[in-house]
């Protein structure tokens, strides 16, 4: 019968078409360019003394492992530290320094330093946007809002408390220096438990 | 074919009226095409005259005293589609006329009446007509479908609207676009159907898995978009709709043109363009919510009663901007957004579509062939090709804004065939086969880990459905379907994630390559699923119909449920699939009780859907990264129960006044946990007053009230550690917003222009009172209010 012939040919066509094409080539690796795995904050005391480093490192990026936080030591009383921040993407080999990208978009980025109760320390920005070359124009920014890749931290009396460092992308600029006022999206945030002695 | 009687004519048509010796006789018999039974009371009219006869109980007729010449006959019967045939008459002529006695094709039904044919007999089914679709011409599919009872939607803003049937959406809802099952990455919450609403002639929704011919996994239901009927006569017609939209300060235009020929040839083209800028909530601009949408389709073919073919190509592309304030960095940003009650970013109005945004393109090509076998049935063969490309652009650092963060290409080939055996009046059988090959390619150039891996998928399906008419009142239908599906994926897992998921115990043999911090794995999973349905339809008469249906449906997990793994930036959440997820099985029982009286009528539709191993995605905790904490959403399986009811009624108060009332309720429960299920739509109540006065140029006006209750059953919220506050805080990620009430109004008028041209103007106002509200099923409810007042002015020109 005609009908069964038609149906049969359909099955055959279907089977042929299902069995074709099977190239099991391994897909390419994704080169994760935008990840920041590591933030290292170096605090160098003015007039000599022990340099303190604070670091947060999350080698699996958005993976399940929590960031690894290390603090090299305690801060000294009544000292001014010159702070600088280095950002790395260690999923790449060699590790890529991300500072450049933040600098190139300095007007769209800002670090926030928030000192918890009990920690007798204050911070101040030591840079502004005009210190950096815009990736877009190739010239220095003309605006002078703070960025925070370089800052100072000044301790007074002994104490303990938290020190939270946050990098925001596209915050409201200028702002009052708090994350609450600035908005934007958090690129990095870490809280360090510090001791001033 | 025999049906066409075409003998060389001797006399010309215009001799008809002349006073010759007109003694010719035309007689014949009208019979059913399928089972060859004679048709009584078929009406035969000689076109252009008042010469009308009816067939007797043997299906026979006779027309006396005709002049020789060529005639066109119009043969109609209440149960059949109307047929025109040409006859050349000289002396005494006999013609056999075959009519298609079953009302099976949507397009043919429209000739007989204005009703839409049901795709199933015993299942709950509802349709949207062209007039309603035209009203939503400037909107989208999901919004239009919400006119139907039991249909809701999962939204991401106002432009991404995923239809949900009886509380279920995504892969549980099949969308058939002119007979082609859409393969447009429906697995994603923020992936709307890639369909131009203006390309459909009508849309039917089957609320359940009973329509096995379309797929065995429609646990939610099936949405069928169909083309308007194209008549078999020489004609050229078209229409153009223009909408001006206040909210978004834009509009759309859509136009279509159809050319048809008497011999069955036809050609139809359609195109639409839509553009909106930022939309507005009552108190502020929703920055970055514009849209650009283009749809086009071209269709041609030849359709005869006994055989035919058609080819169709359709193209759809949309660029949708996603609310800027909804792009957040971590759980602190989310808490801040929830607590602030206002979007974090409000910029001046713009038409520009900035990041985050998505750009989607869908190509669909289809070739279909059908043939009818006399006294046997109809055979269909179809091949379709679909290509779906999705880009998602994020707010990115280092000038990467133009580099897509998600770049997926999904290609699908499907070959299907079915045969409908309808030779017998009492019963009908349909068998079908389907083969499908699908390939997904996630482009590694994004610089972001793939959310959905490379995969190849093979599907094979076979079904048999049948219906049996016991008597005029009672009809029984049943069906069974088998589906095989194989997914062959290649995916990189972070070693840390692989171990955290515990895959190193269960799936270690899937590893192909160890690249240190990453593992390349090759999961190949097979799923064998059997679905079935059985039901009865009892029609006391046309007005009182009761339907009872049971359907068992199994659905294989989709790629997102299996393989999702990573941070979803647009949602600020880590989504984790599970390789051990198995098919889910739904048992659904539905009842439809329809009663119509002289001036009012109602339909009551209760249902229960009991789903074993229901796959759901819900927040389970947080993970810490250098960027702070992110809520983790995990897929898991549980036993679920969905109980619901849809009620609708109408009252004709007088010739001009009418009211409509609709109520929908669904309750979802996680039976294992004895807790509420996430994202179950809240109860809704719609009441509408319609005033119509056809003699005033078809004037019609309405006022509608739409009340959405608060969803009081929702999963528990999460306690998360907030680094900013240095303490655990309550993340109210599941708390539904308050109930709300929206008022809409509209009016329309029709004007006859010269010739066949007709102009219809309408004005529609939505959220008339500019009410501030947020909807539980809008994923942007954390960040901003929903749309404020909107005014749409529509001009429609038929020509």
- Report, as a whole number of angstroms, the end-to-end distance of chain A: 97 Å
Major β-sheet profile of chain B:
22 strands, antiparallel, barrel
Supply the number of helical segments of chain A: 3
Portion in helices of chain B? under 10%
Average per-residue pLDDT of chain A, rounded, comes to 86
Radius of gyration of chain A: 26 Å
E-strand count of chain B: 45
What value does the average pLDDT of chain B take? 88
Shape of chain B: globular
Following the backbone from N to C, one meets helices and strands of chain A in this order, namely: HEEEEEHEEEEHE
Integer count of domains of chain B? 3
For the termini of chain B, the CA-CA separation is 34 Å
Number of domains in the coordinates of chain A? 1
Helix count of chain B equals 7
**Which pair of chains forms the biggest interface, and how many residues does each contribute?**
A-B, 65 and 70 residues
Backbone CA Rg of chain B: 29 Å
Query: Which regions of chain A have little confidence, pLDDT < 50, spanning 5+ residues?
Result: 14-22
């Amino acid at each position: 019968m005609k009908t069964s012939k038609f149906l049969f040919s359909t099955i055959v066509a279907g089977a042929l078409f299902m069995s074709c094409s099977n190239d099991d080539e391994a897909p390419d690796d994704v080169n994760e360019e935008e990840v920041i795995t590591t933030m290292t904050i170096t605090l160098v005391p003015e007039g000599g003394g022990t340099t303190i480093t604070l670091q947060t490192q999350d080698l699996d990026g958005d993976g399940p492992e929590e960031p690894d936080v290390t603090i090299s030591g305690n801060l000294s009383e009544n000292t001014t530290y010159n702070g600088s921040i280095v950002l790395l993407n260690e999923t790449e080999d060699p590790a890529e320094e991300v500072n450049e990208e933040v600098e190139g978009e300095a007007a769209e980025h800002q670090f926030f330093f928030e000192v918890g109760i009990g920690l007798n320390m204050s911070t101040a920005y030591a840079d502004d946007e005009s210190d950096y070359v815009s990736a877009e124009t190739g010239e220095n920014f003309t605006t002078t809002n703070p960025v925070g890749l370089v800052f100072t931290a000044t301790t007074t009396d002994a104490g303990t408390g938290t020190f939270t460092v946050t990098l925001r992308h596209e915050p409201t600029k200028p702002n009052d220096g708090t994350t609450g006022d600035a908005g934007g999206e958090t690129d990095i945030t870490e809280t360090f438990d510090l001791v001033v002695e | 074919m025999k049906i066409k009687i075409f003998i060389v004519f001797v006399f010309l048509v215009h001799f008809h009226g002349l006073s010759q010796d007109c003694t010719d006789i035309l007689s014949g018999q009208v019979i059913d095409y399928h089972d060859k039974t004679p048709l009584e009371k078929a009406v035969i009219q000689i076109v252009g005259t008042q010469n009308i006869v009816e067939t007797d109980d043997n299906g026979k007729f006779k027309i006396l005293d005709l002049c020789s010449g060529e005639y066109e006959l119009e043969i109609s019967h209440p149960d059949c589609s109307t047929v025109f045939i040409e006859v050349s008459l000289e002396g005494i002529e006999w013609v056999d006329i075959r009519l298609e006695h079953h009302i099976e094709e949507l397009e043919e039904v429209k000739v007989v009446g204005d009703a839409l044919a049901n795709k199933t007999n015993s299942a709950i089914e509802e349709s949207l007509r062209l007039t309603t679709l035209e009203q939503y011409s400037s909107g989208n599919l999901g919004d239009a479908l919400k006119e139907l009872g039991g249909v809701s939607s999962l939204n991401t803003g106002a432009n991404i609207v995923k239809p949900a049937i009886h509380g279920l959406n995504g892969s549980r809802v099949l969308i058939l676009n002119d007979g082609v099952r859409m393969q447009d990455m429906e697995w994603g919450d923020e992936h709307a159907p890639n369909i131009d609403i203006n390309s459909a002639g009508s849309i039917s929704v089957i609320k359940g898995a009973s329509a096995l011919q379309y797929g065995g996994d429609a646990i939610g239901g099936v949405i069928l978009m169909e083309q308007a009927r194209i008549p078999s006569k020489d004609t050229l017609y078209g229409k153009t709709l223009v909408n001006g939209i206040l909210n978004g300060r834009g509009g759309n235009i859509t136009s279509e043109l159809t050319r048809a020929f008497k011999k069955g040839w036809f050609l139809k083209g359609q195109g639409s363009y839509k553009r909106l800028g930022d939309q507005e909530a009552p108190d502020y601009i929703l920055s970055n919510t514009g849209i650009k949408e283009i749809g086009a389709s071209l269709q041609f073919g030849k359709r005869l009663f006994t055989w035919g073919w058609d080819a169709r190509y359709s193209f759809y592309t949309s660029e949708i901007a996603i609310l800027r304030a909804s792009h957040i960095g971590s759980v602190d940003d989310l808490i801040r957004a929830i607590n602030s009650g206002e979007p974090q970013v409000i910029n001046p109005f713009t038409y520009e579509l900035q990041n985050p945004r998505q750009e989607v393109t869908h190509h669909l090509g289809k070739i279909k062939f059908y043939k009818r076998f006399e006294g046997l049935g109809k055979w269909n063969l179809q091949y379709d090709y679909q290509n779906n490309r999705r880009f998602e652009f994020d707010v990115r650092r280092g000038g990467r804004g133009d580099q897509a963060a998600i770049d997926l290409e999904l290609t699908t080939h499907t070959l299907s065939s079915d045969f409908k055996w309808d030779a017998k009046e009492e019963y009908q059988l349909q068998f079908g086969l389907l083969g499908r090959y699908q390939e997904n390619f996630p482009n590694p150039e994004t610089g972001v880990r793939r959310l959905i891996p490379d995969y190849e998928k093979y599907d094979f399906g076979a079904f048999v459905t049948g219906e049996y008419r016991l008597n005029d009142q009672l009809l029984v239908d049943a069906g069974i379907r088998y589906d095989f599906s194989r997914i062959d994926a290649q995916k990189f897992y972070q070693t840390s994630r692989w171990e955290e998921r515990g895959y190193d115990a269960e799936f270690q043999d899937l590893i192909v390559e160890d690249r240190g911090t990453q593992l390349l794995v090759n999961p190949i999973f097979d799923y064998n699923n059997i679905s079935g349905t059985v039901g009865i339809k009892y029609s006391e008469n046309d007005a009182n119909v009761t339907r009872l249906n049971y359907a068992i449906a199994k659905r294989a997990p989709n790629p997102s449920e299996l393989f999702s793994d990573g941070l979803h930036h647009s949602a600020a959440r880590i989504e984790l699939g599970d390789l051990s997820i198995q098919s889910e099985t739904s048992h659904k029982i539905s009842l439809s009780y329809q009663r119509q009286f002289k001036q009012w009528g109602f339909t009551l539709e209760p249902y229960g859907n009991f789903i074993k191993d229901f796959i759901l995605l819900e927040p389970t905790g947080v993970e810490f990264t250098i960027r702070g904490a992110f809520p983790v959403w995990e897929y898991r399986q549980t036993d679920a129960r969905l109980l619901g009811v849809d009620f609708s009624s109408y009252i004709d108060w007088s010739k001009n006044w009418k009211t409509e009332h609709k109520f929908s309720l669904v309750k979802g429960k996680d039976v294992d946990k004895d807790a509420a299920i996430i994202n179950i739509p809240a109860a809704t109540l719609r009441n509408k007053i319609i005033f119509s006065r056809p003699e005033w140029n078809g004037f019609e006006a309405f006022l509608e009230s739409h009340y959405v209750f608060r969803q009081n059953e929702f999963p528990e919220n999460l306690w998360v550690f907030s680094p900013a506050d240095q303490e655990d805080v309550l993340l109210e990620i599941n708390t539904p917003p308050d109930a709300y009430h929206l008022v809409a109004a509209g009016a329309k008028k029709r004007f006859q222009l010269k010739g066949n041209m007709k102009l219809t103007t309408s004005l529609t106002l939505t959220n008339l009172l500019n009410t501030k509200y947020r909807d539980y099923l809008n994923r942007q409810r954390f960040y901003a209010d929903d749309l404020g007042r909107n005014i749409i002015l529509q001009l429609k020109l038929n020509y």
